[in-house]
Specification:
The complex is a heterodimer of chains A (110) and B (115). Chain A has 110 residues and is mostly beta strands. In chain A, 0% of the residues lie in helices and 52% in strands. Chain A has strands spanning 4-7, 10-14, 19-25, 32-38, 45-51, 56-59, 62-67, 72-77, 86-90, 104-109. Chain B is mainly beta and 115 residues long. Chain B has no helices and 11 strands. Classes of the chains: A mainly beta (110), B mainly beta (115).
């Protein structure tokens, strides 16, 4: 099965700073790489995803980069805001199901 | 759209009791997933249905857990008998397609506490 690791497990930044979360995976067959955001008391919500034929994707303040050779992909958040505070999960997949990382708690201080 | 609907939102029960969690997927979605979230194990997939048929139940922890999807708009996850170690947040998610790359939409979850 897929082994997924996320780093760091917690990340504290000041408002306006950038944040980067890295996800490594083991299954070379993985071809879909999403990031989910989970706010307190809610279910995870997809915020951005990328497929294996693309190296980078950007959506306003968030971006995802993929290094398929090294089997890792990263979430980049620029100009962080307090409402970005949440737990972020990567969930690489090569099939119908997602394998979630353990999550990264991001805290953005005003 | 109302999104994925789960009930109850909170459930407190005693060890040995039967627990039934309910899920209504987004209308038109043909895949449904049940997950369990704990601090120790994170988010784990329990079972996955496609067109109401169970496709992958390898994540179901043991025979005490069972899941059904009698029609496209309803699914249940049952635990009988429940144990304290079943305490967790259970999420239901649905997607259109069910393949890798089809966005999964999560419900708000059911927080289960087994005393």
């Amino acid at each position: 099965g897929e082994n997924v690791e996320q780093h760091p497990s917690t990340l504290s930044v000041q408002e306006g700073d950038s944040a980067v979360i890295k996800c490594t995976y083991s299954d070379s067959a993985s071809n879909y790489f999403p990031w989910y955001k989970q706010e307190l008391g809610k279910g995870p919500q997809l915020i951005i995803d990328i497929r294996s034929n693309v190296g980078e994707k950007k959506d306003q303040r968030i971006a995802v980069t993929l290094n398929k050779t090294a089997k890792h992909f990263s979430l980049h958040i620029t100009e962080t805001q307090p409402e970005d505070s949440a737990v972020y999960f990567c969930a690489p997949s090569g099939y119908s199901t997602l394998t979630f990382g353990k999550g990264t708690m991001l805290l953005v201080s005003p | 759209d109302a999104g994925v609907i789960q009930s109850p939102r909170h459930e407190v029960t005693e060890m040995g009791q039967e627990v039934t969690l309910r899920c209504k997927p987004i209308s038109g979605h043909n895949s449904l997933f049940w997950y369990r979230q704990t601090m120790m194990r994170g988010l784990e997939l329990l079972i996955y249905f496609n067109n109401n048929v169970p496709i992958d139940d390898s994540g179901m922890p043991e025979d005490r857990f069972s899941a059904k999807m009698p029609n496209a708009s309803f699914s249940t996850l049952k635990i009988q008998p429940s144990e304290p170690r079943d305490s967790a947040v259970y999420f239901c998610a649905s997607s259109f397609g069910g393949g890798a790359g089809d966005t999964q939409y999560f419900g708000p979850g059911t927080r289960l506490t087994v005393l």
